[in-house]
Every structure is written in structure tokens, then in C-alpha cells.
Design goal:
By secondary structure, the protein is of the alpha/beta class. Helices cover about 20% and strands about 20% of the residues. The strands form two sheets. The chain has an eight-stranded mixed beta sheet, with no helix packed on it. Strands 4-3-2-12-13-14 form a six-stranded mixed beta sheet, covered by helices on one side. A hairpin with a 2-residue loop joins strand 9 and strand 10. Bound molecules: fe (ii) ion.
Length: about 350
Amino acid sequence: MRRKLFTLVAILTGSFTAADAEVESDFHQPDVIQKIAFGSCSNPRKGKTPMFDAVRKHKPDAFIFLGDNIYGDTEDMELLQKKWMELGDVEGFRKLRGNTTVIATWDDHDYGVNDGGKSYKKREESQRIFLDFFKDPADSPRRKRAGVYGSYTFGTPGKMCQILLLDTRYFRDELPRAKGPKAKGTVGWYVPTDDTSKTLLGEAQWKWLDEQLQVPADIRIIGSSIQVLAHEKGMENWGNVPHQRKRLFELLKKHKADHTFAISGDVHFAELSKMDFEGYPFFDLTSSGMTNTSKSWAAAKNSFRVDESHPVQNAGLIEIDWADKSLELSIINKDGEKVLHHPLKFSELEFK
Ligand SMILES: [Fe+2]
């Protein structure tokens, strides 16, 4: 059965208007896009927020907020609302939203609780406030289901980019913590679990993802608030629940989802990671944070890191050359300069 489908229009206002269309994605916008920026870990109360202006220098077609977009950290919904309004008042953000499509998922702090999962009492109320802030239309699929996950396609056949924004909070089970002192190279407490009943995405979201990977697309971007590959530093990441990460890889392989890579945030520094899955080179470009940075976290162990980590205010940039069938993954600093860039041919990202 075909889903109820939607077309994005109102780009200039940053809001989405939904209308029926023959596209099997939660949201579709027919304009071909070439440049996508993303960021995370943005606290308007930190004062300086130069990254919005740095992003605007690159004139992206879309901007993805990957979570910790504010530091809500409360069960007081009036306070949470107030903190979202503070982001809305940031001049750089207002200008970005004024002329760029802005889409978003959340992480723990804007969800409402540090390192939070399904036990957060205010998750339904928080979801409503989140969707209102990001101007999801009244008939948005995200208003009809639990969790803020959503799929977005941009472009036309041959130049179709699908962005899958995951919700790694709403359904997530509690994670096991290590006992005793922290191991060398780690900065957090979490250890991988072998309890395969533990979920990160929850069954409804897994089913949705399975369906969404059947939507035709020439490039797919998996947007995860937490890191997908880097799992040795003891922080929250997909490696805490290795069976869930394996399920993600196996799902991508099942659908032969070529030209797919991940983007992530959360850790207060930037890095690019790469992991081989049965011959497929899976990349995860982490950009964090727009305001928050940590040198000690950037020094933690990541055997999958490509190049160096960057503990500076930063944002991610994805540039697609449709004619050349190539793309470039970059990290920009507060001046808009690229401090990391990694070119890739589409042909490098294919399942065997
Ligand atoms: Fe986080």
C-alpha cells in the first residue's frame, strides 16, 4: 500500500507545505540540490554563534540540524519552549532559515535530558514543541507518529538525494555503563551490550527505514545524532548496541543502497570515520559542535578515524557534483574555511 505522500514547497520561509504527490518519501522537493550543510551541539546561551554565518558563506541548498540544537535539559516544557525561542532569536540562524531549507532531528539535550532515552517522561510534549519550532505542517507524517524521524528527497531521477533523519532517543533502551575506572583512551562510561533485546531505533522506526530504503535515490545520507562508527571512546554511539549497527548495515546491503554514507554530531569535535562492511566502505562524517568544543574528547580513541580530529567550532559540508558522479565531504571552521575534506567517487560507494 502506498503511503500518504508529501511535496515540500515553501523553501524561502523555511517552512514546509504538504501536498499529495506520487513520491514515496515523507517529504519531497523537486529542486536538485548540490550543497548540504549540517551542524549540531549549538547552545545559544554560549553567546557567540559564528557557525551560522560560516555556513551561510557556502550558500547551501539545505541545512540539517543533527541534534543538541539547543541545551534544553528540562522537564519544564515552558522552559524548553523558551530555549527554542532563544535559538529562533539568533540572528545568524534567522538569516540561514530565511533563505535555506532547514530540516532537523534531535539528540539528548534538545530532546530534554542528558543521555536520555525512552524513559524521558516529557517525550510527547517535547516532540510537539520540536515540530512546531521546525515548522512541520499540520499534516506532516512526523505529527502522526511517535518520534521525530523523517525522510526527505530532493531532486529528480538521476539526481535524487535522500536524507534519512533518524531518532536515536525516543525509543532507545537504557545503555549499560562500565564499572570501575575509565579504560585508557575512553572519555565516557558506556560499554557495548550483547543483549540483543536492547533497541536504539525501536521497531516502528526500523520498519519505516526498511520502507524508505526502497525509495529510488542516487545518494542517501543517514543522519544520526550520535556517531555510527566511532565506538571506542565510551560515549553514546551505535557501537553501544552492536546488533543494531549490524542491522543497519545489513538493511543497507539488502536494499543495495549504494552511495550511502552517514553524518553525525554529539561529541564536540569533528572527525571522519570509515568502516568496511563486507566490502562496502561506510563513512560517517561527524560535525560537532557549532558552539561546544572539547579537546579531551577529540583526543579519545577512534581506530576508524580518517585524518585528524578537529576540536574547533565547526559545521559539516557535503558537495555533490552530479555530472562528475562525485562528492566531497568537508568540515568548515568558524571562518568558513575547510579544515578537513575528503573527495569520493560514487563508484567507490557500491555494495559488492
Ligand atoms: Fe548529545
